[in-house]
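Can anyone check this?
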Amino acid sequence: PLLPEAWLQQAQTNGHALTTSDTISKQEQAEEYLMMSLRLSEGTNLDRFKSLSGQSLNAAKVNALVEQNLLMHNDGTIIATPAGRIILNAILNELLT
C-alpha cells in the first residue's frame, strides 16, 4: 500500500521517493514539453522545442492554426488562444503528426 508516511520517510532518507524511473528520448521530451507548455499561459518556446527534438515544428501547420485563431505566434512562442484551448488535444495531434 502507498502510505504518505512511507513516502515521506523515503524522501527524507534518499532525497526523493522514486521507486522507478524511465528514460525518455529527446523526441518524447519535446512532445511532453509541447503538450504541457501549450496548457500554460506562457505557451511553447519554439527554440526550446527545437533544442529538445532536434527539429522545428511544421511552420505551415503552425501558421494554419494561427490563421484559424487557435494559436497566437508571438516572438518565438506559440500560445493557445481561448478557442484553441477548447480543442487543445486536436491541436496537439495536428502539430505532432
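Reply from J.R.: I decoded it. The first strand starts at residue 44 and ends at 45.
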